Here is the input.
Amino acid sequence: MHAAGGMKSLALLDGTKDAVNLLQVHGYTIVWLTARPIGRHPRLTGDTVTWLQSVGLPTEYIYYSDLNKHVFVVEKFPRAAALFDDKAETVAHAKEFGIMAFEVNSYGTAAGWTFLERVEEFLQVTSAGRTSDGRG
Here is the structure.
């Protein structure tokens, strides 16, 4: 899949476009962080940009890391407002490091919430003055 360009045709999680737009309207910068193995598959850099552009999402800030995402966020973005991820383990680890983190998926059932629902929750929390740095 990686070597054959399969990463250019992935489906978006439900609510992604609306979630990203809502964050941008509230003044947040979107930073994509992916663990795609660009060292072994260099074409993934271009495939990722092509995919984001094809689905109408911003491409200004894309980071590739083979570190655990929560470690990368702590090291590179210590003032990040929040992390949204589709893997419960990444969210749990981020929270251990004091990062406001939300699990998202496309199902919206059980423990799963859509990206848009989680962004709305994040904005409610931050507008209530619960962030440590006053953003929101």
Observations:
- The chain has a mean pLDDT of 82.
- The longest helix spans residues 115-127.
- The CA atoms of residues 90 and 106 lie 17 Å apart.
